Amino acid sequence: MQQIEAWIESLGYCDYKMEVVSADASYRKYYRLILKDKTFVVMDSSMQLESIYPFIDVSVRLLKSSVQIPRVYSQNLQDGYLLLEDLGDTHLINILNEMSYKLVYMKSISEILKMQKSDTTGLDLYDEEFLNFEMGLMQEWFLERYQNIYLSLEDKQDLNTILELVKDEVLSQPQGYFVHRDFHSRNIMFAGRGKVWVIDYQDARIGALTYDLASLLKDVYIKFDRAKILELVIEFKLLKGRELADVSDEQFIRWFDFTGLQRHIKILGIFARLKLRDNKPAYIKDIPMTLEYIYEMVELYPELEPLKRVLDKIS
Known about the structure:
five-stranded antiparallel β-sheet, 11 helices
């Protein structure tokens, strides 16, 4: 903290207070810098120094696409500090309810549409190898290390068959889009004037059309009636216009569902890893919702039955 304070004072700020805003799932930390007449947020990436460069790079790409993101006022690349615009504490999850969901989700979908027009030059691909790597986290971290479940050869074959199916469905849809990768209710903020701000976008890749839509509408921190969600899915499809003119609603929903399934499979592994490796147990309480989403897909798509047999081993 002394090093951060020294940097803040080098910017000319002396009479201030600091308070913790959050420590996210990575090694980044956020503090609120409180002055007499204004506030800022300090992003501390000193434990994950390499992440600050993608943050700045992606920030420029999003600004050029008119995506609402926090302004960067000062930067210390050597130590990993950024001085950011303070967007307050109102995340999408704080205002989502049965009355507001359609309005705030459509505002968020509007940001996806803008993000998908962003420059993707040089970004890593959300390709077959990376999709498989992510889904592999479930067996290693969730089943084996967290649940102490070791699959038989037959179970492993069943699981691999399903993961191949999921991967193929994700890759069968249009590719080449800017993908935020974590576009959910805790990374979307409302800071007044009815506008949506997007945060935590430094891990962006080039990937599938429906990835950010699935992240938003199949959010593991909140769940709405499927019929209401599918109305928003089709609205997104209509807003894409000619790009999807030849795609049926049924096909688009299947892309959306299987992309969400890929995400939920990886999230089981990530949440378990956060607890066991990173000593961040808070995310474990969100595993039941994640499993609920997965079982919903198993019921809707009979070809996913082998996945149910594997997950039924969970205590």
